[in-house]
Write a structure and sequence with these properties.
Number of helices: 32
Strand content: 5-15%
Helix content: 40-55%
Distance between the termini: 119 Å
Strand order of the largest sheet: 1-2-3-5-4
Shape: elongated
Radius of gyration: 39 Å
Largest sheet: 5 strands, antiparallel
Structural class: alpha+beta
């Protein structure tokens, strides 16, 4: 029974003592060890005093310092956790720290980061001494390199309370005798000159120690007092103050509170971004929402200059706290994601991922917009299951949002999400929404970026789905009224050429590209010529050597083809254009101009909007001024998918998408610069935006332009092979023949473009449309009849004229008969 009362108290100490830490040898009565808390394994520091190896006097000093450490609480003082006394040892557990001497020796910080780290540390020790001298009327009496410790967060904590005393407690001996010889080098000069004792103040001794600490921070351990006169490595901002601190006259040494006031003024040593940031975070609970928003919106620009330990262990936890329990709003996302990159993957999953999942469930558009913009910064840390089960169901709502900005950013986000999406989410859900956006969205930039995004994610699509979708989608884009959309379609066809069968190239791709060689925009024409030459080159090589066909079609049915292989082919230029660039809406860079009046007007059905006739209100992430959209959620009813499948436009008889969607021109219409100005430098990733993009502006996003109304997007009826087109009031009969020829050309290309209905989104089941063949045969027959009729009329006209073949410049006296 008596053994119970004689048990070792160390067994009840909830901390395990680990390996010793160097840095305090012969300069402290304590030895420092690493430690861990039992159960949680949290890291701590253990200060250990060996009773048997030290004198009774040292034991009394150690016990006295422990008592003072227990009762002192301040952000810049060493934080006490627990203690235990046995017959052999005295244990003291504190927060995990290392001696400043060791930290400076091992510190790899350079340049501005090192300067900010030292300034922040000296500020903290000065603040601790102000607490001792002014608030507690105490003197530390042991300020030096070996009484300061550094936490994981890079904060300097003042310890070494062995010689702490109250001011005026012993007037006969105001300076204590230090029993450790190596500490005597830090004694102020008045200790040896009794005449100066009368001029001592309550802070003069500690200010001398602060001067020694500043010298050691920039020069290393102090070896002798005369070395204090060397100020070469001390910053110029600090030289005047340093000279006052190490003055031989105790009365001339400043008060620590005055030091802080002086150095916090503009241009002072303590006036820098890191100290401003840390002080704001300490007082963030009393800051209003406007101050917090301004602070977080500018924080990201400073983080690169801050020491990494401070960012990870001090600033990031404060940001997470502000996110969970404060009203910081979406402004906290940018610095939080930037600092999250510094975490280990396990820590990221524990700290950041729950925040991301919570944010995606938010209904706030500003928050969703910022998340989509910053998706590339954290997507690599998300597990596939998290993306498919928790992130994607929230992201997909953005496709149906009435705000054009959210729709466009949602489209762009799929580039980052695609590698992690499962079959159904990528090959079914995403493609459903892409089909609707490319064909129905009234914003040209959104239609353009939908095509670009589809080209980017082509490698991740299922081979059979990819084979059905790509050609139809990209050919649709080549008929868009928006010039950048047509160019995007051409580039996408070239960039994904390895996924097309050669039969598709001959029967579907080339017939769709040929009309673009006469496109009003030179950028589109150049891309079309270049792409056509590349495809013809492939066909010619296979014609010369049929054995090459198998190699050229090797990636068509491959689940994970390598995009780098395509880059090495003739289409490498297009791969670069599509996989690295999104279209930047031209309202960011172009100015509104008035369209010049044309001398000759084309029939309305033939006009294609070029860069000189496009409205500046096409899709723009930054040019819109309202969160409201002209469409409603009911416009996107999932039950109407059969009306919006991509394939429908491909089977439209006798029209081009550009003709059907062209807005009416007028003398007062606004115009923009040409496509060359739009596409020269505007196809870059900067359109993704940054979190510093004027938060106020995000609430003032423009509603979609009224000039792109639904009436102008009405498509011709495919069931009526003789569908007539509404022409303008002035019809030039000289263009009538060319008009019908162009319509016929598009009808011919449409014959080979199969649509992809809802059923084609289902896994690998082909549903043949029995009526398509009969409709196409009927249209082909009528085209042949019209062609023969035109030939007969031309021959009759020539024979009636009796002049043989018509010569260049011959004037037609009678108008040709209508077709």
């Amino acid at each position: 029974m008596w053994s119970f009362f004689s048990r070792d108290p160390a067994k009840d100490f909830p901390y395990e003592v680990g390996d010793p830490v160097r840095g305090l040898e012969d300069r402290s009565v304590w030895t420092l060890h690493k430690g861990k808390k039992r159960g949680t394994q949290d890291e701590v520091s253990i200060f250990l005093f060996d009773v048997n190896k030290n004198s009774e006097t040292q034991f009394d000093i150690a016990k006295a310092s422990l008592k003072k450490l227990k009762t002192m609480r301040h952000p810049s003082l060493l934080h006490y956790l627990d203690s235990c006394e046995t017959e052999k040892f005295l244990y003291v557990a504190t927060e995990y720290v290392e001696p400043l001497a060791t930290n400076i020796e091992d510190n790899k910080l350079e340049g501005l980061q090192r300067d900010l780290f030292l300034a922040w540390g000296i500020f903290q020790i000065t603040r601790a001494l102000s607490f001792f001298n002014n608030d507690g009327n105490l003197k530390h009496n042991n300020v030096c390199l070996y009484s300061v410790f550094v936490t994981l967060a890079g904060e300097w904590k003042l310890g070494g309370f062995e010689f702490l005393s109250a001011h005026g407690q012993d007037n006969s001996n105001p300076l204590p005798i230090k029993i450790l010889p190596k500490l005597e080098i830090y004694d102020p000069p008045e200790k040896k000159d009794q005449t100066k004792l009368k001029s001592m103040t309550k802070c003069s001794t500690d200010m001398w120690g602060l001067g020694c600490l500043i010298w050691e921070a920039f020069n290393g351990p102090l070896s002798n007092q005369p070395a204090l006169k060397t100020v070469d490595k001390i910053p110029k901002q600090l030289c005047t103050l340093y000279c006052e601190l190490v003055s031989a006259n105790p009365a001339s040494r400043p008060n620590p509170a005055d030091i802080i006031t002086r150095c916090r003024k503009m241009g002072g040593y303590f006036k820098n971004d890191l100290i401003d940031t840390m002080l704001f975070l300490e007082e963030i609970q009393i800051k209003d929402k406007i101050e917090k928003g301004k602070f977080f919106s500018t924080l990201s620009s400073y983080l690169d200059n801050f020491p990494e330990p401070v960012c990870v262990h001090k600033i990031l936890p404060q940001l997470l706290t502000a996110f969970h329990y404060g009203d910081a709003g979406s402004a906290v996302l940018a610095p939080m994601f930037k600092l999250g990159k510094l975490l280990e993957d396990a820590d990221y999953q524990k700290q950041i991922v729950p925040c991301v999942v919570k944010l995606f469930a938010s209904n706030d558009r500003t928050t969703r917009s910022r998340l989509l913009q910053q998706l590339d910064q954290f997507i690599m840390h998300l597990q596939n299951s998290t993306v498919n089960d928790q992130i994607f169901p929230q992201v997909v709502h953005g496709f149906l949002d009435t705000n054009a900005i959210i729709r466009e950013q949602t489209v762009k986000s799929i580039v980052h999400l695609a590698p992690k999406l499962n079959y159904n989410n990528l090959n079914v859900e995403v493609l459903r929404h892409f089909a609707r956006l490319q064909s129905k969205d009234d914003q040209g930039g959104i239609r353009t970026n939908t095509t670009v995004c589809l080209g980017k994610i082509a490698a991740h699509l299922h081979p059979q789905i990819r084979q059905k979708v790509l050609v139809s989608a990209f050919v649709r884009a080549t008929r868009d009224a928006f010039p950048p959309a047509r160019q995007a379609g051409v580039l996408a066809l070239a960039a994904t050429q390895q996924y097309f069968l050669l039969s598709e190239v001959a029967n579907r791709v080339l017939p769709a590209l040929c009309p673009l060689t006469a496109d009003p925009e030179k950028q589109v024409r150049d891309a079309a010529f270049r792409t056509i030459k590349g495809f013809l080159g492939k066909l010619e090589k296979v014609s010369e050597d049929p054995s090459l066909k198998e190699g050229m079609e090797a990636d068509v049915h491959t689940a994970t083809p390598s995009l780098s292989n395509a880059a090495a082919t003739w289409a490498g230029w297009a791969v670069t254009a599509v996989t690295a660039k999104f279209y930047r809406s031209h309202s960011d860079t172009a100015r509104v101009q008035h369209a010049p009046k044309s001398v000759l007007s084309k029939p309305g059905s033939l006009e294609q909007p070029s860069s000189s006739s496009m409205s500046t209100t096409t899709s723009s992430v930054t040019s819109m001024t309202s969160l409201e959209h002209s469409e409603s959620a009911s416009d996107y009813d999932p039950e109407h998918w059969d009306m919006t499948a991509w394939g429908e436009i491909d089977s439209s008889a006798g029209t081009t998408a550009a003709s059907a969607k062209s807005p009416p021109s007028s003398g007062s219409a606004q115009a923009t610069p040409g496509l060359a100005a739009l596409c020269e430098d505007d196809w870059d990733n900067e359109e993704w935006g940054t979190l510093q993009e004027q938060p106020a502006a995000e609430a003032e996003l423009a509603s979609p332009s009224e000039t792109w109304n639904n009436a102008q997007w009405t498509e011709p009826n495919v069931n009526n092979a003789n569908a007539t087109y509404v022409r303008g009031p002035r019809v030039d009969h000289r263009t009538e023949h060319r008009t019908e020829h162009r319509v016929a050309a598009h009808q011919n290309s449409n014959d080979s473009l199969g649509g992809w209905e809802d059923g084609e989104f289902e896994p690998i089941e082909e549903n043949a449309d029995e009526n398509n063949a009969s409709k196409m045969d009927e249209m082909r027959r009528k085209r042949e009849e019209r062609k023969l009729q035109r030939q007969r009329e031309m021959e009759a006209r020539r024979s009636a004229r009796g002049q043989g073949p018509m010569k260049l410049g011959t004037k037609i006296t009678t108008p040709p008969p209508p077709f």
